[in-house]
Every structure is written in structure tokens, then in C-alpha cells.
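ugh ok fine here u go
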Amino acid sequence: MQSRINKIEPLVVSAVEPMKIILSTKNPSKAEEIKTIFVGLPILILTLAEAGADGEAVEDGATLEENAFKKALFAHQIGVWAMADDTGIFINSLNGAPGIKAARWAGETATTEEITKHTLESLRGVTDRRAIFKTVVALVSPTGEQHFFSGEVQGKILEAPRTLPQPKMPYNPIFVPDGTDKVFAEMTAEEVNSISHRGKAFRQARAFLESFYSFS
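structure:
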């Protein structure tokens, strides 16, 4: 998914003052992965908590793109970039469920462990355990311009967790991406970002910012 804004001449950003981006999440595991992708650029990424924001966006959109945009708008401030993602897991044998409701299909107040358990119970006795993770990243400029990037990874869901889950990452102990024998929870942040749906989408966002700005 490409940016909706036509490419313009690069702007020069001084390395003395890093570009500030508000990342619309309070998920520490996700934030760690995302910040790793932008290492090496003069960009300061702040989570909602680090920016002192109260609350979180309401994720009531019908698509990943809508939810990502809602979350980015929640974090948007004049003069500051805002960035957010929304992710879903689409399981073949469940007709694409839970899809965009991956974080809520076990109940609005379900814990990370309860979501993992609910997923495995829904697949009990099922032989086709193929699934696709999809992520859409929304990037909103200080003037309100919208840019979207997407990534996906295919893999399978195990019959039991291989590790304990990371905070708010209920699928990481049970999802094995194609091309590896590790679940995401067994990988370093660098390994995850090199192959994951989220890593692919945020690397596109990084490349866009590098082309949009001339960092010096």
C-alpha cells in the first residue's frame, strides 16, 4: 500500500533536533520492536505514555486502515508527526477470523493469556492451522497529510504455546512464520522486524521518511 501523497522535494531536517513522532500505542512490546526499526535516523519516537497522553483511541473501524488512522489521529498534534498501526490475524480454517478483532475476540476485557487460550481452543482438533498476519501503518504529517503502508506474513499456529506471551502479544508464543522454526516470542526484536508483518510495514514508513526528508 503506497502513500496517498505525491512525492515532493526532500526537506532538510537538522540532526541537532530530532524529528519527533508520537507513536499511538501503550503496548511496550510493540513499541520496542517499532523503535528498533528507526534506529540510525534522527527521529525521536514517543509512545502515548511517554508523550503524557491520557487514554487511547477507540478502535471501531471496519478495516485495519481505518483503525490505524483513528489511532494516529488520536496522537496527532500540530507540529508533530503521528504514527500508528493496526494488526489482524486471519486464520484459514476460521474463515478469516478473528481478523481485525484479533485483540478483542476473546472478550473486550480478555487478558493476553486468555486470548492465546481462546485461539487454541477455537482450533482444537483442526488440522489446517494456516494463518496470515496483516498490518497497516498510518502516518499523519503535522499538517494532516495521510500516508499508509502495509505488510503481511504467512505461517501456522501451533497446538500449544512454546513460550510465555509478551505483554499484549497473545499470538507471539503460538505463531510460526514461514521460513523459520521459531515463534515470534523466541526471536530478538531485530529478527522479528526482518520478517514480520509489522516490520515490513514500518520499514516502508522509515523509507518514506528518509525519502521525504534529507537528514543532516
